[in-house]
């Protein structure tokens, strides 16, 4: 679990933070409590939809967990076809993280905390911290070196930046486009065949 962004205001005596993590972090109750996580954004599909790509909301139905975690799921596959799903859910992502930071810290996770969760966190930073896509990704990779969104998600972030922060367009022209993502092995679970572009290559699910 990596701290990406921290609020200036105190909540309950501590400064809430935005964290990125993977499956192992999402199910580690001790760590979630240690970092005062109150809200969890799950960027994977349900396990009954795709047993390999999905990650459960581990403590959602645990009545003995007090206070309970607030969950939200944005079902996305780590493939080019998943980009539109993230973009469509951008306002939901921003709203959930923003509200969560008013109460405590927020964990955004996918399978390994590499691609989908990185993209969701970057969307928040572009909108709320007025960063360019390049700046958001640079901050995230500095604090979480393994973060590496697929090329389609990087393009999505640049497109989102233009939509929500017109004033940053000049900034981006000066800084240049976001750096190309590191190459990753192209294997892993994908969405149902009927929804995949046959010309799109599969990517490792993170």
From TrEMBL:
Residues 173-206 are annotated as: Disordered. Keywords: Hydrolase, Kinase, Protein phosphatase, Transferase. The keyword Translocase does not apply. It comes from the Eukaryota. Residues 84-145 form the Tyrosine specific protein phosphatases domain. The keyword Transferase applies. It is an enzyme of class 3 (hydrolase). GO terms for biological process: negative regulation of MAPK cascade. Residues 10-166 form the Tyrosine-protein phosphatase domain. Pfam families: DSPc. Its EC number is 3.1.3.48. GO terms for molecular function: kinase activity; protein tyrosine phosphatase activity. One of its GO terms (cellular component) is cytoplasm. InterPro entries: Dual-sp_phosphatase_cat-dom, Prot-tyrosine_phosphatase-like, Tyr_Pase_AS, Tyr_Pase_dom, TYR_PHOSPHATASE_DUAL_dom. Belongs to the protein-tyrosine phosphatase family. Non-receptor class dual specificity subfamily. This is protein-tyrosine-phosphatase. It comes from Fistulifera solaris. The lineage of its organism: Eukaryota, Sar, Stramenopiles, Ochrophyta, Bacillariophyta.
């Amino acid at each position: 679990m990596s701290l990406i962004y921290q609020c200036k205001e105190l909540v309950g005596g501590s400064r809430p933070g935005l964290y990125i993590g993977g499956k192992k972090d999402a199910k580690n109750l001790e760590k979630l409590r240690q970092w005062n996580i109150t809200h969890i954004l799950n960027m994977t599909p349900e396990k009954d939809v795709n047993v390999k790509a999905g990650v459960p909301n581990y403590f959602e139905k645990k009545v003995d967990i007090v206070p309970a975690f607030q969950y939200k799921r944005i079902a996305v596959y780590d493939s080019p076809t998943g980009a539109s799903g993230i973009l469509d859910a951008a306002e939901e992502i921003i709203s959930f993280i923003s509200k969560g930071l008013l109460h405590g810290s927020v964990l955004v996770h996918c399978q390994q905390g590499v691609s989908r969760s990185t993209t969701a966190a970057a969307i928040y930073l572009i909108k709320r911290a007025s960063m360019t896509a390049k700046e958001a990704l640079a901050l995230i990779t500095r604090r979480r070196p393994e973060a590496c969104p697929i090329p389609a998600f990087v393009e999505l972030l640049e497109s989102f930046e233009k939509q929500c922060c017109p004033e940053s367009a000049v900034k981006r022209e000066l800084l240049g486009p976001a750096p190309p993502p590191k190459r990753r092995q192209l294997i892993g679970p994908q969405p149902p065949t009927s929804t995949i572009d046959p010309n799109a290559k599969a990517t490792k699910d993170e």
